[in-house]
Design brief:
PH-domain like; 6 domains; 6-stranded antiparallel sheet; flat; cilium; flagellum; repeat; cytoskeleton
């Protein structure tokens, strides 16, 4: 007896037993995908996971495979590799069969046609066996044409079958959604494809055309009205033909009047006239483009009483003897339209051709109506009167409300408190004036010059301010091209003319030389060399005096070592500006001797935030002392290299 329950029993109701070990009862998968393509395979496992031996190799087949040996002479026969599988959407991509067809449509409510023939094109898409029906659009047909059947698989019968390309041929009828189409022909690609598949094509048929459409294409008989005064004939002949004239209305006699351009349109269809305005950007006029609306304009009125209220009644044909026609407009002539004189100076090309063909006029020379530009009156700048600066006086010549000239703020900020001082003497035939000495200060922030005369006791001349801060023009300066004195013009021995007085530069501050050497690229070489030649003897004498009389109680080596230590100590005070410190000391040394009073020296150090409380700095100040309450600041400044 078998160990499994129910094995060997007949498969009858009531004689079956459930296998409790089985938990899966689904069918095996027979459709799989490999490399994007679907293919089927035979199942190896049945329902519930039982192994099937039907689709397996038999014992004889296995023995035959195990006993196979390679052929020694020629080897095994090589079989051709199977062809690659190509899906339909790749093989038939963008391959479409086209058939020419038509269908007949009844027209029950028309007396001119009883039926209508509508031509269509049937497209069959091979990639997915779908079809579409398109009707070419006919102009002015009044029918909804275009896509009659959208692309889809079209049912062939009631059993659910669809049309296949094997069902299509020439010279046959095909019914789709209750409408019967007659296929008459196909394109060359369709013919080649069907013949390659073994389908015998029927001979092509002629396309049937719609009889009513052919009737409309026949030439229509034209009736010509013999009357020359038929307004309908005039309308049909000259419809949409307009004469265009360019005119000017001279309204300069009235207040605020001017020459205003207009366009005159003459409509040949009904002899009406329209006058349109030409607006320009920002012309200040209301945006009304039409001055005279389109209407017939009277040229000559019937004689009538002066009391006739013509301003409140419309003009009728009984009141007008003559209306304006195309003969009344010509280039180069004036015409009066509703009381306004218009001068016609040009017309367009269509108007020229019309007058040339209709009236034989060939003279269409346009008239130049553009205003000639006014001659520019040269602006004469009056001579400088000496009041104020020249730039301020020029502003009064340019506008009624003069504006102050713009200042160079960057230059003012960079050169604030920077002054170049020179000693000058007055060049005069008077011997007393030649003895006078002046201090000329040049302010770099605004290029102004001031002159100060130090008072001399018992000289008989009151000293003080000789010239306030102002810009001094050169003798060659003009009102149109003003040039002023610059630092490059101030050299030792040069002569400058200040408002009629001539001064000769005899000396300069040592700060001038230091400033020009630090900005050598901004000054001529001759100016810098003149200052160097002037200061060279003084510098040599001072250096000699220093070398001959060393500071008492100290040696030069000790001073150099102390200066190096002070420099290392002052590196911690990064707020100090060494250049400003040197400039301030040089400016306080009026005579350039290199020696300052101790009180003035300490006050200057406090204003510059120099840490005089430091031990090394105090020691350096002690070494720089020369005499009672005197300090040689030049060695002290070596600790503040710029």
């Amino acid at each position: 007896m078998s160990s499994q329950p129910g094995q060997g029993l007949p498969f009858l109701p009531g004689s079956t037993f459930r296998d409790l070990t089985k938990t899966s009862f689904h069918r095996s998968q027979t459709l799989v995908y490999k490399n994007g393509f679907a293919f089927s395979r035979l199942p190896t496992v049945g329902i519930g996971g039982e192994r099937l031996y039907v689709n397996q190799l038999s014992q004889s087949e296995l023995d035959e495979l195990s006993s196979m040996r390679p052929t020694l002479t020629y080897g095994q026969a090589k079989r051709a590799p199977p062809s690659d599988f190509i899906p339909a959407y790749v093989a038939f991509d963008k391959k479409i069969l086209k058939f020419d067809a038509y269908f007949q449509e009844d027209v029950p409510l028309s007396a001119e046609e009883h039926y209508r023939i509508r031509q269509v094109a049937i497209y069959y898409y091979l990639e997915d066996d779908s079809m579409s029906v398109m009707e070419p659009v006919v102009q002015n047909s009044g029918l909804p044409q275009g896509k009659l059947i959208r692309r889809q698989r079209v049912p062939k019968n009631e059993h659910g079958d669809h049309y296949h390309w094997k069902d299509l041929n020439r010279g046959m009828n095909i019914t789709m959604y209750g409408r019967t189409y007659r296929i008459v022909d196909c394109d060359p690609f369709t013919q080649v494809f069907l013949e390659s598949q073994g389908i015998e094509l029927n001979p092509p048929e002629k396309m049937i055309f719609d009889p009513y459409t052919e009737l409309r294409r026949m030439p229509v008989r034209k009736y010509i009205t013999p009357s020359d005064f038929d307004q309908l004939k005039q309308f049909l002949t000259y419809d949409k033909q307009v004469l265009r004239f360019y005119a000017m209305w001279d309204d300069t006699n009235s207040m605020f009047g001017e020459n205003r351009p207009y366009i005159i349109h003459y409509y040949l269809a009904d002899d009406t006239v329209e006058v349109r305005e030409i607006h320009k950007p920002n012309d200040g006029r209301d945006p009304f483009p039409v001055l005279i609306k389109r209407q017939r304009l009277p040229k000559t009125f019937v004689d009538k009483k002066k009391t006739f209220p013509s301003c409140v009644l419309e003009i009728s044909d009984q009141e007008v003897l003559e209306w304006y026609t195309a003969k009344d407009f010509a280039v180069g002539k004036s015409t009066t339209l509703l009381g306004r004189p218009f001068f016609i100076y040009d017309c367009d090309e269509f108007t020229r051709n019309f007058y040339r063909d209709k009236f034989g006029i060939t003279d269409f020379q346009p008239v130049d109506v553009k205003k000639k530009p006014l001659e520019e009156v040269p602006q004469v700048i009056p001579p400088y009167n000496g009041f104020g600066f020249l730039e301020d006086s020029l502003q009064n010549c340019f506008s009624l409300l003069p504006k102050p000239p713009r200042k160079d703020v960057i230059k003012m900020l960079e050169n604030d408190h920077k002054v170049l001082r020179y000693q000058v003497v007055l060049e005069s035939p008077n011997p007393e004036d030649r003895k006078r000495r002046f201090i000329l200060s040049y302010f770099l922030s605004n290029d102004m010059i001031s002159i100060y005369e130090p008072p001399v006791r018992n000289s008989g001349i009151i000293g003080g301010k000789y010239l306030g801060k102002t810009r001094v023009p050169k003798p060659s300066s003009t009102t149109e091209n003003a040039t002023y004195y610059e630092p490059s013009d101030l050299t030792i021995g040069s002569t400058i003319e200040v408002f009629g007085h001539r001064f000769v530069i005899t000396d300069a501050d040592e700060y001038v030389l230091n400033y020009m050497e630090s900005n050598a690229e901004s000054f001529p070489a001759a100016t810098l060399q003149s200052l160097r030649d002037h200061f060279r003897p003084t510098q040599v004498a001072k250096e000699t005096a220093k070398s001959d009389s060393p500071i008492p109680g100290s040696s030069k080596q000790e001073l150099d070592e102390l200066i190096v230590q002070v420099q290392e100590e002052l590196k911690l005070h990064n707020y100090l500006n060494n250049r400003n410190i040197q400039e301030e000391f040089l400016q306080h040394d009026k005579d350039g001797s290199g020696i300052l009073d101790k009180g003035e020296f300490l006050a200057l150090c406090d204003s510059l935030n120099v840490p005089t409380s430091d031990v090394l700095v105090n020691k350096l100040i002690g070494l720089c002392s020369c005499g009672e309450n005197k300090i040689s600041y030049r060695d002290f400044l070596r600790a503040f290299p710029s």
